[in-house]
Amino acid sequence: MMYDPLIFDIVLKSPLKFQKAWLKERNKKFHIHRTVQKVKKMLKIYKMIKKRGQKTFDFE
């Protein structure tokens, strides 16, 4: 299963308490599916923006 490195970057920079919660949530099948869908959506948006040649971009 592939995850967007950006998500890992955000998770790694976050507090340990959040990291543990994230890992716990990630292990739930339903949540993994939801996460993957979010990642795919973000990647789609990222590719669209990249195609337009826009350099700055964030998920917020």
Strand fraction? under 5%
Uncertain parts = none
In total, how many beta strands? 0
Tally the helices.
3
Bin the helical content. Answer: over 70%
Distance between the termini: 24 Å
Shape: elongated
Spatial extent as radius of gyration = 13 Å
Mean pLDDT: 67
Largest sheet: none
Structural class by sheet pairing and helices: mainly alpha
N to C succession of SSEs:
HHH
Explain what this protein looks like in three dimensions.
This protein has 60 residues and is mainly α. It has a domain at 31-59. Helices cover 73% and strands 0% of the residues. It has three helices and no strands. It has helices at residues 5-13, 16-26, 29-52. The protein is elongated and about 40 Å long. The mean pLDDT is 67.
Put the structure in a nutshell.
Helices cover 73% and strands 0% of the residues. By secondary structure, the protein is mainly alpha-helical.
